[in-house]
Amino acid sequence: MNGLRSALAAPTIGISIAVPEPHAADLAAWRKAFGDPLADQVPPHITLLPPSALPRTRFRAARRHLRDTASRLAPFEVHLRGTATFRPVSPVVFVPLSRGISECELLQAAIRSGPLERDLSFPYHPHVTVAHDVDEANLDRAELTLRDWEATFTVRGFSLYEHGADGVWRPREDFAFGEA
Question: What pLDDT digit, counting tens, does each position of 114-126 carry?
Answer without folding.
Answer: 999 988 888 999 9
